[in-house]
Design a protein that fits this description.
Elements: E1 19-21, E2 32-37, H1 47-60, E3 69-73, H2 77-89, E4 92-98, H3 103-111, E5 115-119, H4 131-141, E6 145-147, H5 155-172, E7 178-182, H6 187-199, E8 204-210, H7 215-221, E9 251-255, H8 257-271, H9 277-291, E10 298-303, H10 317-322, H11 334-340, E11 351-352, H12 357-367, E12 371-376, E13 379-385, H13 386-394, E14 412-416, H14 421-429, E15 433-438, E16 441-446, H15 448-459
Helix pairs in contact: 1-2, 1-5, 5-6, 8-9
Length: 460
Amino acid sequence: MGMEKHNHSILGIIGNTPIIKLQNVAREVESEIYVKLEYMNPGGSIKERVAVNIIEKAVERGELKEGGTIIEGTSGNTGVGLAMSAAVNGYKTIFVLPDKQSQEKIDNLRAFGAKVIVTPTNVAPDDPKSYYSVAKRLAASTPNSFYANQYYNMDNQEAHYNSTGPEIFEQTDGDFDVFMAGVGTGGTISGTGRYLKEKMPDVKIVGVDIEGSILEPFFRTGKVVEAHSYVLEGIGEDIFPDNLDFGVIDDMVMIEDKESFIMTRKLLTKEGIYCGGSGGAAVVGAIKYAKTQKEPKKIIVILPDSGNRYTGKIFNDDWMRDNGYFDNSFNASISDVLEHLNKGDKSLISLGDDKTIGDAVDLMKKYGISQVPVISNGEIMGIISEAKVLRPLFESQISLRDNVAVAAERNFEIIDSHELLEKVADKLLDQKTVIVKKDDNLVAILTDIDILHYLQCKTF
């Protein structure tokens, strides 16, 4: 009797993924941020919803026949969904992936028995070597094949209109203000957003895009910019897919590779959420969007896939370190450090080159500082420091009445406030005095103890 409740196949348990509230990584905003864990689908991503719908519709229309071959250009997740459905229904699969995709995604597809072809990432969409072009050629030349074409096949968007949107509405009773998702093919945000707007006219639909993509700049300005390379998988495009309906989208947020990867790791270590880089990107986007709101909002964010697709990249310390993505305090900008230490909001205390060493000592005593730049004709000619003048004064090698030029040292370096703290650390290790310039003004001297105070505050 109980066995009557079983599912006919693995495809029957796609969907009904949970929504949870973030507890730790979004504490800096008053808005409540909820995430929908699409990696809890049986194949590990939201794309299974799309794959099943595309195949069902293709069979209904007679486009996919018994024993046929499914061909698709994919970043990996749609391929897994198609491969899973193909395994259940007896189809063959060929997938074309750009070479920036993780090895785990390629291995996953091959494990399903799929043929995988890897193509260059940094080529134009219409280049014969692009994964779009290669997939189209294969579909045209392979007998009894079906080209899934997720970018232009509107069954992609319909999958989310019929499943993701209704599911979110039923799970929440419509008790939220904003729906957010990364934008790639456009199917998730357009289909889900369209359904939610029909049910909730006041809901805001907000897309997340990656630096280097053409989508957010076009949304913002109506102009087509040149695409640039980025590392994040699953978000951003260098084309305008038919599945992307800008009319559904109310706003877009731009994020970067590094902050996405750092957040992806934080979601695991701070929330126990094992999602992929596009999920980290979406959460970064949600936090950025929340900061622009005048009052707190309830925001629902899609986390599209599983972190197990990225163990060789985002969750690999060596890869993160080699690519400069690690989240350590030395990756902070000097301006962040100045703000944290309440430095840099005034001009730097300095001394003219006509003053004496005694004047320099009086100035250091008055302001509780240990170093003073000596200025000549608007330029720094050297640095007077208490550590360097103490012994010569004690041994009578110099006098308090001597001109500052006698004791000024030129072992200093001027660094712009936009540079990373890592540069300051390198200079301090070389025993140099670090002077910070902001908008052509000298604003602060950073010392070893300043760095230690900053690191201590960031650690505890």
